[in-house]
Structures are given as structure tokens and as C-alpha cells.
Amino acid sequence: MTATGLGFPATRPSLGRLAHLRAILAARLWLAAGPAWQQGCAWWHSERRLRADRPAAGRAEHIPDAEIHWPSVDGTQYAGQVWAIEVELTPKPVARTTRIIAGLLSPMTYGQVIYLTAPKARPVVMRAAGSLPPGDQARVVVRDLPAAAFTPEQHR
Fold first, then answer.
1. What strand order describes the sheet that includes 140-144?
2. C-alpha distances in angstroms, 79 versus 13, 31, 49, 125, 130?
3. Cα angle vertex 16, ends 13, 19, to 5°?
4. Which pTM does this prediction carry?
5. What pairs with residue 69 in β-bridges?
6. Which of 12, 54, 118, 120 is packed most tightly, with the most Cβ within 10 A?
7. Could you give the C-alpha distances from 98 to 2, 3, 35, 104, 129, in angstroms and in order?
8. What's the pLDDT tens digit per position in 68-107?
9. 117 to 6, 51, 144: CA distances (angstroms)
10. Half-sphere exposure of 133 toward its Cβ, with a 13 Å CA cutoff?
């Protein structure tokens, strides 16, 4: 990390986080391979960078796994938007998931919240999104994680 000049500490992730980190990377590669990404000149802002930008003192809000920034490029579909990306492998309680989504949407923090989910987590995320006011529901997109997010040993 020192050699890259990024200034992040070089630490080993906990074993429990490896599957989640793999899924986030798979989601990033999958999204970046789409035509909208290239046409819109989108860029990825990782959770690590988001945490570095927001001091822990006073930070009460949930930090998404990443943000996608769509610059204001004429003629592009998502110009000027910022999306929150959440990767969910295991279901959390519905109330907690609802609080996370509502926090990311209010006050207009993100234009959209994109949830990429494993099959086990999808019903909880769908219930949480469905419990939001209609205007907020329209700003939540729930999709399956790409197959590359899972190791062959993981049961989908």
C-alpha cells in the first residue's frame, strides 16, 4: 500500500470478510463491463475511500460498500447521479435492512440504492424495500449478484 501511494493500511482481511470482499469485487467488475459504464464514464468509490473521507468521530450513518459516480456527460443516461452499492450475501434482520436503505436514501444522499444479493438475502432486501414509501421504493434496485461473486464451494 505504501508503494501505491494510497496511504491505506495494509492489513489482512478477516476470514469472515473474504467472501464479502470477493462479492464486491465481482460486482464491480460486472458493473464496469456494461455499456452504460463506458458510455457514462462512471467511476467506483470504494468503501475504504468513503471511510477515509469521513472521520469516524461523529459518523453515525451506514457506509455503503461503494458508490458509483456518473459524471455530467452530455447525452448519458445517468449524468450527475451518485448511486450507493450494497452487496448482501446473508440476510440481516428486516428492520436493520430497512434502516440502512432509508438512511442511504435520506436526505437524497443517493439517487439510487443498488442491492446485489445472494438468493438467501434477496427476500429480506425485497421486504425491506417494499416497506418504504412509494417514492423511495422507486429508488431501490435489487438484482442478483453475478455468478463470479461465489466460489464453487458456496451454495447459492
1. 43-46, 66-69, 82-88, 112-117, 140-144
2. 35, 16, 22, 27, 27
3. 85
4. 0.85
5. 43, 82
6. 118
7. 38, 40, 31, 10, 7
8. 999 987 877 888 899 999 999 999 999 999 999 999 998 7
9. 30, 22, 5
10. 5
Amino acid at position 29, single letter: L
Query: Is the bond preceding residue 35 a cis peptide, omega within 30 degrees?
Result: no
Cell numbers given for 141: 434496485
Long-range contacts, stretch 82-86, CB < 8 angstroms, 24+ apart: 82/110, 82/111, 83/110, 83/111, 83/112, 83/113, 83/114, 84/109, 84/110, 84/112, 84/113, 84/114, 85/24, 85/27, 85/31, 85/114, 85/116, 86/113, 86/114, 86/115, 86/116
Q: Per residue in 1-56, pLDDT tens?
A: 667 666 666 677 777 788 899 999 999 999 999 888 888 889 999 888 888 777 66
Residue 41 to residue 72: CA distance in whole angstroms = 9
d(CA 156, CA 152): 9
